[in-house]
Amino acid sequence: MALLANIKGVGLGLKRELIPQIQRLFNGPSIANINFVEIAPENWIDAGGKTAADLAWFVERYPIACHGLCLSLGGPDPLNTGFLKQVKQFLATNKILLYTEHLSYCSDIQRGKAGYLYDLLPIPFTEDAVKYVAQRIRQTQDILGQRIAVENTSFYVAAPISSMDEITFLNAVLSEADCWLHLDINNIYVNSVNFGFDAHEFLRRIPGERIVYSHVAGHLQVGSNILVDTHGENVIDPVWALLEEAYQLFGIFPTLLERDTNIPPLTELIHEVDKIAAYQNRYLARHNLKQTRVA
Questions:
Q1: Please, what are the domains in the chain?
Q2: Considering the entire predicted model, what is its pTM?
Q3: How far is residue 141's CA from residue 159's CA, in Å, rounded to a whole number?
Q4: What are 127-142's pLDDT values in tens digits?
């Protein structure tokens, strides 16, 4: 993953309301732990005016990861190759090296026409689905001319006719498609509560060599065993614990804070960015101490 060496440390999802705050504080120490930002290409392709100027400002100052929203890798409609060609041009123009998408679907065919469902829905966990999705990932990689990463997603209703569990399905897709993993720590926790499995056991079965970067986020609890992945709350302790264990299992990998709704001022949000950096620094200190003792 040498080509992605510029994506490192701690990242922050780039929401419109955060742009002027980051620009204002850029040269100060308060946001020093923001090492990269993440954008959804759908929101920036063909942008003009101030939006294009804002993007150019960040391209000059921060490494950028693109995290897609609408490719619908598991959907029944043909892959949107026209959109992927736009993505390819967008990545090249802005010197963005990383593109990731959700391991889910968000489109369907109604009356012969493809339409978007405006939600990320689970793919049936079957051998046929592994082959189907992996083929679409390979097609995506062929069009883009680069490897992509897929993100483990949260969901709330189990897909019908599944014949394997989520982690088995995820690992099978990664192997079949030979792609990277965009590891979402919060989604592991959300699904573990919603479907009653051990989040730490799930994490231990992740192929660490495929992790390209990760997300942490907050969620909404709507019942004793129902969590909704809103990205609108603070990260909770069990998710921090999973992140710390992931570092212990796999070493440090880039980690981005997602906050999509109920966004506080950057001066408040930065506390969670700093907390991610503290976990990374703590791991590095322990690792260096072990190396010193061995030497």
A1: 2-294 (3.20.20.150)
A2: 0.92
A3: 26
A4: 999 999 999 999 999 9
